[in-house]
Amino acid sequence: MIKKICILFLVLALPVICFGSIKQQILLGQASVVTVINYDKNGREAAKGTGFYINGKAHIVTNLHVVKDAESVGIKTKDGKTFKLSKVVNSDEDYDLFIFTVAGINSTGKYLSLQPAKHDVGDSVMVIGNPMGLEQTVSTGIISGIREDDKEYKEDFVYQITAPISPGSSGSPVMNEKGGVIGVATMQYKKGQNLNFVMPSDKLMPMIKKNAGMDFKAWKEKGYCFEPVTYRAAINFAYRLIDKDEYQNALKKALSLIKKYPKKSEAYRLAANALYELEKETDAEKYMKAAVKLNPKKEYMHNALGVLYKKMEYYDLAAKEFYEEIKVAPQNDAAYYNLASVYLINNMQEDALKILDKGIKIAKNPSDLYLKNASILSDGGNRDLAIEKIKKAVEFDPYNADAQYILGVLALENGDKAGAYEIKRILEEMESPLAKKLGEKINQ
Hints:
12 strands, six-stranded antiparallel beta barrel, alpha+beta
């Protein structure tokens, strides 16, 4: 009850109560916050995010996804000065965190202190960032939830907060009422409203104890600074090896994890992925079935086995797993989508439309199902109805970039260039690469 009363006064009586303290925290926060700039190969700004100093050594933290695809990285400070990334200190793709230094700033007295202690639902928070390019924006709210990860990863949780996080806010400091940083604004759950998440500061503590001193080019080539040690991070690390076509190394990592954690299903799923890429399909099936047996109530396990069977062209078995996925999680749209894809491979358009219609009625977010439905209708010559389905896809999920892009192309085909420009603007706000693609079509 006390917390609720304090929050009420902060919202309703901020100019009178504790104004000096809050103002000081804002001033310190703004002095410590920088704009992180992602430059493309031509040296142009491709995207922006937020970062902040975390110690006197001028180490800056941001989200890894802000810089991951950049050719080079820089920052802009509150006073408008720009600096280029000097060295990568550490990174963790699993937690979406990236720490670096810039050339020309070796130390700073303006930094924010980390508060790694776990906070509670109802605690006040303040976020300072650059949403939509609006620099040094301050927003407030509370911790509305603490979301623990899958039971396989008991060591992890994220804060859910009511303070808004928009594109450009990624990497913002999230502070408690004493000005300590409880975490880093990491993502916005785009299929909901006001559901914003924060990676806790305790994930940063071990990262700042190591310093790779690596230049950005070397980091880009390697993809990490230090090999992760937790189970979840090791799993994701191995998946990155698969992304780099290092299948044998990924398999080696998977088998090592299986030996250490024989009852955890994700390592078996990882082994199956690596074995499939190594063209050992029979072994891949064996490990994937073992993963499902260990975790039969997880819909994504049935999905993974179904996808594997689909790749192996065992379509009946794939359909069976997608049906199992629907039983386990009937509100999940992925199973309906994949099952429809199997039907389409076998020229069963009517069955595909039926399963999509079923999913549209049940799924929490049927946006992709509407889009798949539209594709089938369009291929069948029913263009007008297909357009209505695409509009429905956007209506259910305005952040569905594929659906927005198609509407933009349709606007151009109808001579509505202004409408296409508006959709391009929406895609830019979403930081979608489809914005550039639509822009090219507009300028043709």
